[in-house]
């Protein structure tokens, strides 16, 4: 029986609970998933930790955008890794690049040391790097446990050829976790064409706010009509989407 893992990325207590009920094996806890995720608030981590003993890896990303950080930004990243180590997170999810597109091995080494006994995931900064094969070798040397990747494409299905290469090259030393557009259907296709055993999904759906009164004259960000996100759209993880993905992995595991 083959062992598969399903990690669900969440940015609220409600989404964490839905992911757990859906059968997630592990959570990646973030803030602001609507912009790709940032470091979550300490209070959010503490609340989720109170509710469950599921493994939690925490995203450490100080801002939206690229992965080339100033010294001040990197200091914040390092402090956040230390904070979540003290708070009892099971792992951290982070990544730093150099201007030439290579992995910033020096800074990643410092973060790996800062993490101590926690696991570390190299997040999709990996997908923005110049040479994924070189980055994989550096990750091995640094003792990074997991690389989250879409195969340097917008979805893991598009990038599955590279992902399969990375699985082979990892030699079991780094877990290559497929992310980007993952759902039950994508998992079925990935299982049939790759040896990937770990999958990362958000399972997001959009809910309408419970607000009855809505002031049409005020927008707190870019208005929906201008391509932004409205104040009255709530993003949540779908228990049903997570459950469908988990059942697909369980079925695949029994068939092998």
From TrEMBL:
Cellular component GO terms held in the UniProt record: cytoplasm
Keyword Cytoplasm listed: yes
Pfam (any one): CutC
Signal peptide: none
Primary location group: cytoplasm
Transmembrane stretches, start-end: none
Keyword Cytoplasm: yes
Keyword set, alphabetical order: Cytoplasm
InterPro entries for this protein: CutC-like (IPR005627), CutC-like_dom_sf (IPR036822)
Protein name per the record: PF03932 family protein CutC
Gene Ontology terms, MF aspect: copper ion binding
Compartments, as annotated in UniProt: Cytoplasm
HAMAP family according to UniProt: CutC
Family that this chain belongs to: Belongs to the CutC family.
């Amino acid at each position: 029986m083959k062992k598969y893992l399903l990690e669900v990325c969440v940015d609220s207590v409600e989404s964490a609970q839905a992911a757990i009920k859906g059968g997630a094996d592990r959570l990646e806890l973030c803030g602001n998933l609507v912009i790709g995720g940032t470091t979550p608030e300490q209070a959010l981590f503490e609340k989720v930790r109170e509710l469950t003993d599921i493994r939690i890896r925490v995203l450490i990303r100080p801002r939206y955008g690229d992965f080339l950080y100033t010294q001040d930004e990197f200091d914040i990243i390092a402090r956040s890794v230390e904070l979540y180590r003290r708070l009892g997170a099971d792992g951290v999810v982070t990544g730093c690049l150099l201007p030439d597109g290579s992995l910033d091995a020096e800074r990643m080494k410092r973060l790996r040391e800062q993490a101590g006994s926690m696991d570390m995931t190299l997040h999709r900064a990996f997908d923005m790097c110049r040479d994924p094969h070189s980055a994989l070798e550096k990750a091995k040397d640094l003792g990074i446990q997991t690389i989250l990747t879409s195969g340097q494409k917008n979805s893991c299905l598009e990038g599955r050829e590279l992902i399969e290469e990375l699985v082979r090259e990892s030699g079991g030393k780094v877990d290559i976790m497929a992310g980007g557009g993952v759902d039950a259907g994508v998992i079925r296709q990935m299982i049939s064409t790759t040896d990937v055993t770990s999958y990362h999904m958000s399972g997001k759906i959009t809910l309408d706010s419970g607000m009855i009164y809505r002031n049409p004259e005020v927008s707190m960000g870019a208005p929906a009509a201008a391509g932004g996100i409205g104040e009255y759209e709530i993003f949540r993880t779908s228990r049903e989407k997570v459950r469908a993905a988990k059942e697909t992995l369980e079925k695949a595991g029994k068939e092998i």
